[in-house]
Design a protein that fits this description.
8-stranded mixed sheet, alpha+beta, single chain, 27 helices
């Protein structure tokens, strides 16, 4: 009880200092809890949606997707004959059965030819209005479609694009473009997480989406009273045989959930990873806070020991303070996490994914995990200061002397740090010199961990030298005030090292990712210049295949010399070594592709691979299966026949553009795959007539005005798009790393604040002999800047080392250019100085307001 009272008194005596540490715990716990609440809410939203929209049993084509995704290589959804509906109606236990048509291989545009597809990445769905949709949709305006000139739209899409009944809409499919007017607007009775949904009447849907009548993509089956979904499925399978895919509502919902589960898990664990980095940074803040509080209570601890307190009691007293800090910070963090989740939901809403707070899901495990992590991290971080407090001898404490083991401990620490850093450097060297990327990645991971720990441990040793250099460069110009700021930073190298290490971690990751991202862009740009011999590349950024109508529009553009079509499909390969490789990718292109993309070959000529009955393979594939030029591979094409193709070329596996592709000609593909099942083009490569590049560029854009799903890019555009994609990814990662940097800034603030308290008497004496308030504040600000720049130098240097090593591994995959983004590195370094200035604002202000006499009288 005495220990608890002492801990409580000390905790509230330093509540301001504890508050900053509690904020670090709060932010980290909030990020963990917010991530869990957000992902659980998304799962709940999708679960409710899939459960509500699934019929009791669904019948579809054998080769259709389990998730209901209808995009296929030929742009049409797999279909079943209308007669199946009557067969299903005759099955036992069936109350009703209705045929429907639905496709996601569509683009919908408004009257100005602007796309109505979601910007959040959600699907665009066009289907026939049916009884199952009527269960989950409520018509709020107008009426359901009843003829070929009518279409109904969901309310979310209508709101986003200002659509009203009577507005004209175009539906673009492989069949052609169908125009209709909005007949009504329907709202979801459950949350729509971001899809754009349009409804036609059944006959129009068949004609527009499939191009033929008398077929459906699905049959929605409703069970009679007392019949379970499982029994109904058995009855339907008995009636139909095994020629169709039959799923219960639970199976359909589960398949749909698995489809989004991969994306959800990537997002969840990525965000939790960044929360872990914030926790790691927070550890340094907590260690520094308790170390300085223990140092400031040295005399008090000595008195406690002198009157009979044991080491364990002193140790326990500090740990109880940490426990209180962890509990308060974690409880507040769990609450803040729910608020963060709601904020993320609103942010996703702005991006086009609507998530309702009605579905907010807070499992009991979420606050439990947050509380456990927050308390555990705080207590573990406080253990070393607590142990150090317990080792202080009464007489040494009463004399205000340091512990005799401090110098020896510092030497041991420095030695361990140097060993770990050297081991990390050796691992990074082995990673950079690896022959295979898979082997090197393991060494890279080990090197990152060891070098990071080594820099953290050796930080106090490095602080002495680095701070002196920074002082000589930056602080000496400020005269005595600058020299005092330097000495303050050097006064306790362990404290400076720990404070700088907190900032170092975040900036090391920023530097590493900047180097990797910049090197990827530079390598890809160089490879494009070297390999791509065409003027323009046409593709859909959303993954839509290119319709025949769009291909004809491209061919008809003025100034165009040639158009190369590029298709992709799957096939089963039977190689000369007798192995059968299922669902292997094969690329079919026009012979001019050998000119449009200059792929290096190690045997044969790529142009020969486009001869009838010929193909190419890449080098690694050839080595694995004993293939040489002249070998034959039996190819069983998806949706087509089987034939033996002769290998005419072996391409280098070091290619970056179209890496690992195996080529054949479109004519060869057409020999084995029927015309109605031929895959659509993924890309078009267009070359302009000599001297007409600008005219052709404009003509292509004009020709594809009615097809907004496709983008025309010249090589400059393509490079910019690549740079933007990587830049957006990096910006998102930097945003997540900002949490760790914010926690590091709190650490600098706390260190300076406690340092000011620790030097109260000294500050009073300096003020008494003539140091002005302005000079005092400047001294504290410069001390903060030096600490921040120290952490930045370590972090940026370490991060560039990691990034350069990672680039060496990427070079094994063909990305051979190392590019250091000096503007970014310089900007981060300069920004660190401003971080230091910002962190010093409050401590410098409080120091300047000290009463001189009271400060001198402080014991």
């Amino acid at each position: 009880m005495t220990v608890l009272k002492t801990s409580m008194r000390n905790f509230f005596a330093h509540k301001g200092r504890m508050a900053l540490s509690a904020v670090a715990v709060l932010l980290s716990v909030a990020f963990v809890c917010g991530t869990l609440v957000f992902t659980d809410t998304m799962n709940t939203t999708f679960d409710k949606l899939f459960a509500a929209t699934s019929s009791d049993v669904t019948v579809s084509a054998k080769d259709s997707s389990d998730t209901g995704e209808t995009t296929s290589d030929n742009g049409k959804p797999p279909v079943i004959p209308a007669a199946v509906v009557d067969e299903v109606r005759g099955a036992a236990g069936v109350k009703s059965a209705e045929g429907t048509v639905v496709s996601t291989s569509v683009t919908v545009v408004d009257g100005d030819k602007d796309s109505l597809s979601p910007t959040s990445g959600g699907p665009t769905i066009v289907g026939s209005w049916n009884a199952n949709d009527a269960r989950t949709m409520k018509i709020t305006s107008g009426a359901a479609p009843e003829g070929p000139d009518q279409i109904m739209v969901d309310a979310d899409t209508a709101d986003k694009h200002g659509l009203e009944p009577g507005d004209e809409i175009g539906v673009i499919t492989v069949v052609g473009t169908h125009t209709a007017k909005v007949s009504g607007i329907a709202d979801f009775t459950v949350t729509n997480p971001g899809a754009a949904i349009f409804y036609l009447d059944t006959k129009t849907a068949q004609r527009v989406l499939v191009g033929e009548s008398g077929v459906y993509t699905n049959v929605n089956v409703t069970a009679a009273g007392g019949v379970s979904d499982a029994q109904l499925k058995k009855n339907v399978v008995t009636a139909l045989g095994g020629d169709y895919k039959v799923q219960t509502a639970e199976e359909t919902a589960e398949a749909n959930q698995k489809d989004v589960e991969g994306f959800m898990n990537v997002m969840k664990y990525a965000m939790l990873g960044f929360a872990g980095i914030a926790f790691l940074v927070g550890i340094f803040l907590i260690i520094n806070t308790f170390s300085m509080l223990v140092a400031q209570r040295t005399r008090e601890i000595g008195l406690m020991r002198a009157i009979g307190s044991s080491r364990k009691q002193v140790n326990r007293s500090v740990l109880v303070e940490a426990l209180l800090l962890g509990i308060i910070g974690s409880v507040l963090g769990a609450g803040a996490g729910v608020g963060l989740a709601v904020g993320l939901m609103k942010l996703m809403g702005l991006a086009g994914m609507d998530l309702s707070t009605d579905d907010l899901t807070v499992a009991w495990t979420t606050p439990a995990i947050g509380l456990f992590l927050g308390v555990a991290v705080t207590v573990l971080a406080a253990y070393l200061p607590a142990r150090r407090a317990g080792r202080i001898s009464p007489m040494a404490a009463l004399r205000d002397a340091g512990t005799p083991a401090d110098a020896r401990a510092g030497r041991i620490r420095g030695g361990i740090g140097l060993v770990l850093t050297a081991a990390g450097g050796a691992a990074l060297y082995l990673a950079g010199s690896a022959d295979k990327a898979t082997d090197g990645s393991m060494w890279l991971g080990l090197g990152v961990v060891l070098s990071l720990i080594g820099f953290v441990v050796v930080g106090p040793v490095l602080a002495s030298g680095v701070v002196r250099v920074l002082g000589a460069v930056l602080l000496r110009a400020f005269g005595p005030v600058g020299r005092m700021a330097e000495r303050n930073a050097l006064r306790n190298p362990r404290r400076t090292g720990a404070t700088g290490a907190a900032l170092m971690i975040g900036l090391a990751l920023v530097a590493c990712l900047s180097v990797v991202g910049s090197s990827m862009v530079a390598s890809a740009t160089e490879e494009l210049d070297k390999s791509v011999g065409t003027d323009f590349i046409i593709q859909s950024d959303s993954g839509q295949l290119i319709t025949p109508q769009a291909v004809e529009a491209v061919r008809g553009a003025s100034g165009v010399d040639r158009v190369t079509e590029y298709k992709w499909t799957e096939a089963d390969f039977t190689t000369p070594d007798g192995k059968t490789l299922k669902d292997t990718a094969i690329t079919a292109a026009d012979p001019t592709y050998a000119t449009d993309l200059r792929v290096e070959t190690v045997a044969g000529k790529l142009a020969d691979a486009y001869r009838p009955g010929s193909m190419s393979v890449h080098e690694d594939f050839a080595k694995d299966h004993g293939i040489s030029v002249g070998s034959k591979i039996e190819i069983a094409f998806k949706d087509g026949g089987t034939g033996a193709l002769t290998v005419r070329a072996i391409t280098s596996s070091e290619a970056v553009v179209d890496a690992g592709a195996m080529y054949t000609s479109i004519d060869t593909l057409a020999k084995y795959v029927p015309a109605d099942r031929m895959p659509l083009d993924m890309l078009l490569f267009v070359s302009a007539k000599d001297g007409q590049q600008e005219a052709a560029y404009k003509a292509l854009k004009d020709g594809l005005h009615d097809y907004p799903q496709y983008t025309v890019r010249d090589q400059t555009d393509y490079k910019e798009a690549l740079k933007d994609q990587i830049g957006q990814l990096l910006n998102m990662i930097y945003g997540l790393l900002a949490l760790a940097i914010v926690v590091a800034v709190l650490g600098v603030v706390n260190t300076l604040a406690l340092s000011v308290v620790e030097r109260t008497r000294e500050i009073g004496l300096m003020r008494a002999i003539g140091l002005s308030r302005r000079q005092l504040r400047r001294m504290i600000r410069m001390e903060s800047v030096v600490i921040a720049l120290f952490g930045a130098l370590l972090g940026l240097g370490l991060g560039m080392g990691w990034g350069a090593t990672a680039q060496q591994l990427l070079a094994l995959e063909g990305l051979k250019v190392l590019d250091i983004p000096w503007p970014t590195i310089t900007g981060v370094f300069i920004g660190s100085a401003f971080v230091g200035l910002f962190a010093a604002l409050v401590p410098a202000f409080r120091a300047g307001r000290m009463n001189v006499l009271n400060a001198i009288a402080t014991d």
